[in-house]
């Protein structure tokens, strides 16, 4: 037993490390491919250079190039064509933002994801994001890591439960690596599976190991000064100076929840529109990419050709970086425009079938709306003496908190989001307002989610079907069910077959216990066992009860649980079991019928249902 426990413990330390290494390497490949596509397609032809966060590693140094909106549209449409061809030709399950695919595989596909999903998702997402499609990296890397974990489980022929755990470990490892948030990655994989306040606790420890491993592997790819840095670098030391600030933070929660609901409605509304568009699905990502480019160009020209507004394309981390570091460099109008139009461009890119994540855009939307809200409160404090204390709030802090609150509400993952945003920004002084806003957004967005494949709780998950089954027969004993007053015909083991045939003709009893001279039960036979001899009268006087009985029979005692009795009924598919006296070995005291046990089950179930109805009234 101890050896078995040691082997199980070793398994859940070794396998997550393997998954973490694979996911870390996958994150590196994904990052390199995305930047390569961006440099030699997007930037080379259109001159557009998406601005990255401070902590992201630029692989290529780009000289100033002339900006061409025409080429921007062409490159984006071309990227959509390539992405659509890759996905719908080789792995249709890799379409969209990826996280939903991993969630669906966990709940409904026994943890099985084809390894080709990892390959196709890596290529398609690198092309989509590298050609300025509006999306994030968490969805693709989550599905890539999940498929790697599932592949390992399939290769080792592990059980469905173990495959699910390894799949979740890969999912969390990918997220923890790409966002340099290993602790959040561990919680994210367990929390994102459910819409309500529930957690897949079985995956936490393996996912923590795989996430830390992947984070370490990915960190080796970064320059030394970035190895253990934050995605958004070193931000100002934001902190809450007064509990009064909880009031504007609470008001911001209402705004974030409203924007979050708009985001979800827009995302799935556009998805439904594209689903109804006739034609091959391979072309729809190109249509979405073209519309995304048109929206960005319209916004660019309508607002004085401000390059900051082009943050509605690609990840958009550049404007978020500016908003968090130097919020004074951006106006409220620009922040709100980017935040709200980002909803449309992300929906067009991903809901059309493009391959990208929704976490990154959510950070930009929530962060921009948060910074804009903070600037509005600051302006109000400067102009209205009655609330002059609002002049001291930090818009950058509202941006950090807004990032967490927004995604916590729409993704139904408050705990992992709080940790992830803190790890991404390096700002831990804002944990109290972050928790406050995330909780409010989680409650305000109840009933809706950005991830359609989530289930409410573990109780509704097909992965846990049977885990919560109520044992209706618990506590019920054999002595509570079998009839003590029932007369049972006992057959001496020396009774000739001719007498047994006559006995069958005058009784409705089906099972006949056989006893020896001392009255102890030594076997049992059924009427069916005797019928094979009925038409052969030559052996009626030769055979006796000992010849037709079976001496290896199952029995129960009065104190036995009815669950045990039911298992014995089904083991041999029999309808009656002898009830033996535990204090007098071999002494039969009755027979338990299967229909009596089933009747007890039905009565007990009816009582429980009636009690549940009364409790609900």
The portion of residues assigned to helices is 55-70%
* Largest sheet properties: 3 strands, mixed
Instruction: Give the overall shape, derived from the CA principal axes.
Output: elongated
Q: What is the end-to-end distance?
A: 49 Å
Give the overall average pLDDT.
87
Order of helices and strands: HHHHHHHHHHHHHHHHEHEEHHHEEH
| Largest sheet, spatial ordering of strands | 1-2-3
Radius of gyration: 34 Å
The total count of strands amounts to 5
CATH fold topology of the largest domain: Clc chloride channel
Subcellular location: Membrane
Keywords: CBS domain, Chloride, Chloride channel, Ion channel, Ion transport, Membrane, Transmembrane, Transmembrane helix, Transport
GO cellular component, one term: chloride channel complex
Membrane topology: Multi-pass membrane protein
Task: Provide an overview of this structure.
- This protein has 617 residues and is mainly alpha-helical.
- The protein has three domains: 225 residues, Clc chloride channel, CATH 1.10.3080.10; 222 residues, Clc chloride channel (Orthogonal Bundle); 127 residues, Roll (CBS-domain).
- Helices cover 58% and strands 4% of the residues.
- It is built from 21 helices and five strands.
- Strands 1-2-3 form a three-stranded mixed sheet.
- The model has no long low-confidence stretch (mean pLDDT 87).
């Amino acid at each position: 037993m101890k050896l078995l426990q040691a082997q199980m413990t070793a398994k859940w330390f070794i396998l997550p490390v393997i998954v973490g290494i694979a996911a870390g390497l996958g994150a590196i490949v994904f990052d390199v491919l995305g930047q390569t596509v961006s440099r030699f397609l997007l930037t080379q032809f259109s001159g557009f250079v998406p601005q990255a966060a401070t902590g992201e590693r630029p692989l290529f140094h780009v000289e100033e190039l002339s900006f061409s909106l025409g080429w921007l549209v062409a490159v984006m449409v071309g990227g959509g064509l390539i992405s659509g061809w890759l996905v719908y030709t080789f792995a249709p399950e890799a379409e969209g933002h990826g996280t939903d695919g991993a969630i669906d595989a966990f709940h409904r596909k026994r943890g099985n994801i084809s390894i080709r999903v990892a390959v196709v998702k890596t290529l398609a997402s690198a092309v989509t994001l590298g050609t300025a499609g509006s999306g994030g990296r968490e969805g693709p890397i989550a599905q890539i890591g999940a498929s790697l974990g599932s592949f390992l489980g399939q290769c080792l022929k592990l059980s469905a439960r173990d495959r699910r755990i390894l799949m979740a470990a890969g999912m969390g490892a990918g997220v923890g690596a790409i966002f340099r948030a290993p602790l959040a990655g561990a919680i994210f994989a367990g929390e994102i599976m459910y819409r309500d306040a529930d957690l897949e606790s079985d995956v936490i420890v393996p996912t923590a190991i795989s996430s830390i491993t992947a984070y370490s592997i990915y960190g080796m790819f970064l320059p030394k000064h970035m190895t253990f840095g934050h995605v958004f670098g070193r931000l100002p030391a934001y902190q809450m100076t007064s509990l009064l600030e909880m009031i504007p933070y609470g008001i911001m929660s209402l705004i974030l929840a409203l924007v979050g609901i708009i985001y979800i409605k827009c995302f799935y509304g556009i998805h439904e529109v594209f689903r109804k568009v006739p034609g091959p699905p391979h072309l729809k990502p190109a249509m979405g990419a073209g519309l995304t480019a048109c929206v960005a160009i319209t916004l660019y020209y309508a607002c004085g050709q401000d390059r900051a507004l082009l943050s509605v394309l690609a990840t958009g981390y550049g404007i978020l970086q500016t908003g968090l570091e130097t919020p004074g460099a951006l106006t409220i109008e620009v922040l709100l425009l980017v935040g709200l139009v980002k909803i449309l461009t992300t929906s067009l890119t991903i809901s059309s079938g493009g391959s990208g994540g929704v976490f990154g855009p959510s950070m930009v939307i929530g962060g921009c709306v948060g910074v804009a809200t903070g600037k509005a409160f600051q302006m109000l404090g400067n102009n209205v003496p009655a609330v002059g204390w609002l002049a001291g709030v930090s818009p950058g802090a509202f941006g950090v908190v807004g990032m967490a609150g927004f995604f916590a509400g729409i993704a139904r993952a408050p705990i992992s989001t709080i940790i992830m945003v803190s790890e991404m920004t390096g700002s831990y002084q804002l944990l109290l307002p972050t928790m406050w806003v995330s909780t409010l957004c989680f409650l305000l967005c109840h009933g809706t989610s950005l991830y359609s494949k989530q289930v409410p709780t573990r109780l509704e998950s097909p992965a846990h079907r049977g885990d919560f089954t109520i044992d209706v027969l618990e506590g019920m004993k054999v002595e509570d069910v079998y009839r003590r007053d029932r007369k049972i015909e006992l057959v001496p083991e020396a009774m000739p077959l001719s007498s047994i045939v006559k006995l069958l003709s005058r009784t409705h009893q089906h099972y006949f216990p056989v006893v020896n001279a001392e009255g102890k039960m030594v076997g049992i036979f059924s009427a069916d066992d005797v019928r094979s001899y009925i038409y052969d009268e030559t052996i009626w006087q030769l055979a006796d009860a000992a010849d037709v009985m079976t001496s290896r029979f199952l029995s129960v005692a009065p104190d036995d649980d009815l669950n045990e009795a039911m298992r014995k009924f089904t083991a041999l598919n029999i309808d009656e079991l002898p009830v033996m006296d535990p204090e007098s070995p071999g002494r039969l005291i009755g027979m338990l019928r299967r229909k009596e046990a089933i009747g007890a089950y039905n009565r007990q179930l009816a009582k429980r249902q009636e009690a549940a109805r009364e409790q609900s009234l």
